[in-house]
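S1.2 Input.
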Amino acid sequence: MRSATKAVVGILCSDLHLCHEAPRSRAEKGADWYVVMHDALCQVADLRQKHGCPVFIAGDIFHTWDQPPELINFAIRHMRLLGMPITIPGQHDLPNHNYKEKGRSAYWTLLEAGSIYHLEENERYVIQNIVVYGFAWNKKITTQPAETKHRLKLALVHSYVWNGTSTGYTGAPEDKLVNAYREVLRGYDAAAFGDNHIGFKKELLTGCTLFNCGGFIRRKSDEQHYRPQVGLLMDDGSVESHYLDVSKEIGRASCR
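S1.3 Output.
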């Protein structure tokens, strides 16, 4: 049963797709892309400071695995502002989409710099009142969470999931529909997904809240009306959507 009085215990996001060059649809508008990325990340940093909770990133921190040093340095600084978030890599973070080659990537440089905590395959990691398990790109959800008292069980997953025609592409596979994950997520209180850039939330019958984070920054012309969001993980396992402010997309957040 969901609690009437809830507190935020985690911030869920994914698909940051940080990149040195502005996407074509944004460059045409003359946007300073580093300022746009800074603004979005600082909104999350402000949320973290407000609630005093960890940040979880479900993959694709970078748009490509081989970003230049300027962008990597930017990411190192901003990941530290997020309090060393708990992360898994998405396919865009991996050379040739190959998990075994992660040590060659910009993502791995963040780890070496001490600015992220990387969850290994099926790793069980405890932070504050949360037990989190990581399932990176192309890794199956195989671990059933151990029984714990007074701790939330969170799955951090980078895998495509959709919930009907408004949240998927034409011809999206049936085995990636949200209910296909119902049994493998049994025992979890919440699951944060990355990969699909259309965010949505679904309460599964097995008691798990599946939150597909969606794209973190609008990158394409057909996303001009999309509302980027992060998830606020509550102490009862529910997740509330928090929409990022894009009304003044350049230079809004303070990043205290």
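S1.4 Remarks. The two ends are 36 Å apart (CA to CA).
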